[in-house]
Amino acid sequence: MTNIQSIYSALHTHGLSKNHLSRIMPDWWSAEVEATPGGAQRAKIYLVKALSLQIRAFSESPPRVEFDLPGEKRFKLSSRTSETDVELAVAIARSASRIAINALDRDFVQPSPSASAIRDYILGTGARWVGLTELLDVCWAYGIPVLHLASPLLAKKKMDGIAMSINGRPSIVLSNIRKSGFLLFHLAHEIGHIALGHLGENGAIVDDDFEEQAKNSKSADEVAADRFALELLTGNPDFTLALPKKMKAGPLARLAESSAVQMKIAPTHLVMSCAHGDPGYYALYVGAANLLGAEVSDQSVVTGKVFEQLPELDPDAEHLLRNLIA
User: Fold this and answer.
1) CB 193 within 8 A of CB 203
2) In this structure, is residue 63 part of a structural domain?
3) What is the pLDDT of residue 1?
4) Are residues 93 and 180 in the same domain?
C-alpha cells in the first residue's frame, strides 16, 4: 500500500516540498490524521484533485507523478522555458479553474468575436475606458472565471497567461506578478483566444512571456489575439504610442491620467504602450504604471473578484482555491 512518506517523496522530486504542500491541505488534516492507516489514502485522493494528478500513476507503489493536463494544449513559450517547466503551473491552473467553474452559478456565453462590440458595450455602461475591473466584470458575466495564481508551490515555474477549457467551459488564469499595467493586456489577449474560437473542448493555450513573444515571429492565432486585445483596449488593432519627449515617471503618470478620459484608454495601458515602443526606457514606464496603480495591485483586484463572484464555496474547496490563487 502507498504510504504517506512515499507520496511526499514522489512530489518532492517535482519541487513540491512537504512544507509547501501543507499549505494546501484541508483544515481537517493533521499529524494525527497523517499517522493513521488511512491517512495516506486520504492524502492521495485529496492531492490528486488539488494538483490535477493522474490517479493511476499516483496509486502505484512507489507513486509516480504525472499531471492530468488538457488533451489539446499549445505552448507559446520563451526560449528560457520548456513544456516541462510549466506543467505544474498548468496542472494547478486546471485544478483552480475546475473549482471555480463548478461553483459558478451561470452558464457560459460565447463572447462576440468583435472586440469593438465588447468595447462598445463596456463604454456604453458609462465606463471611462476598458480597464481591468471592466474586463473582469465582463468575463464573469460571460461565465468565464478569471484567476491569478500565486501559490508558493509554483516557485518560479509560471507563465503569463492561460486560456483553458474544461468540458467546453473556459477559464482564464494569469500569473504575472508585476503589480500594475501588465495583467490588463494579458487578460484582453486571453479573452481574444476564447472569443476567436482558438480553444478546443478540453484545450489550453499557454502564453509564457508576452514581452519576449513581442520580439519574435508569432503564429496566426497569437497575432489575432494581440490585435483583438489592442482593439478591445484602444479601439484600434494597430494602436501604437510614442512620447514626443522623455519625462520622469511622475509627470508621465499624470499625463497618462489626463489623456485617458479623452482617448478612452486605461492610463496604465497608455504607459505600457509607450514601453513597448521604446524599450530603452522600460523601467521608467513600469515606474509610471506602478504610480498609477499605487492604491491596489492588479493581482488583488483579480482575486477580489473571484470571492465576490463565488460567495458560497464549499469550505474545503475555498481553502484549496485560496491557497492556489491567493
Assistant:
1) no
2) no
3) 45
4) yes
